[in-house]
Amino acid sequence: MPGYTTRQQRLRLGGHDYRIRSLSDHQQFSDPDGRAERLGISSAQWCLFGQVWPAGRLLANAMGSFDIVGKRILEIGCGLGLASLVLQRRGADVIASDMHPLAEPFLAYNSALNALPSVAYRKLRWGVPLPTLGLFDLVIGSDVLYERDHAEMLASLIGRHTHAAAEVLITDPGRGNSAPFSRALALQGFEASEERGPMDDDDIPPFRGRLLHYRRSAIAMPSAGVSRQ
What we know:
This is Methyltransferase type 12. This protein is α/β, with parallel strands linked by helices. It has a single domain, classed as Rossmann fold (3-Layer(aba) Sandwich). The chain has six helices and nine strands. It has helices at 35-38, 54-63, 82-89, 103-113, 150-160, 178-186; strands at 6-13, 16-23, 72-75, 93-98, 120-123, 136-142, 162-172, 191-197, 209-216. A seven-stranded mixed sheet has the order 5-4-3-6-7-9-8, sandwiched between helices. Helix 2 (54-63) packs parallel to helix 3 (82-89) and helix 5 runs parallel beside helix 6 (178-186).
């Protein structure tokens, strides 16, 4: 690969074995045409999309048994898209999204590497409305609350892109930014629950990983105050 190096990993995700191409280390950077810079992705942040993170594995494993029947699903900040690959194997109606310039080609490569049809992908900047994306029954993401201002931004995105009856599942390693996110979703009529899950093979109860599950019924949808596009 020009400008960066990759490796292949074998991972157990959602009850199946996968081969995943990822960046070979955390010191990668390649932005020859300046696309990442224009999107506000710094050289220090550039490589983050291409790593296998514990929270991503936790989400992928959760998607191996999650109820997906009849649901249109959006993965936000997908990175390598581990959860979307698991959902694709299960025949789910899933769209993966990210803003990194290389997220889509890495996801397509990993789909082919595992003999799966390419996962549908949309470039999505959380703070920029994208009306053509439509509405979803389930929104998922892993470690997407890593900065304080992401809570309100993601809550607004969910308000724009969910049906009246909807679910949100976020895996969080405990960065401390989930409380404002939960409060913002509560204003939209979502009820929250939490489970614990292993962050890696050595994690033992009580597990470090948090699965934040939000549910809203159609009758709980606020009649005003939520922007939906």
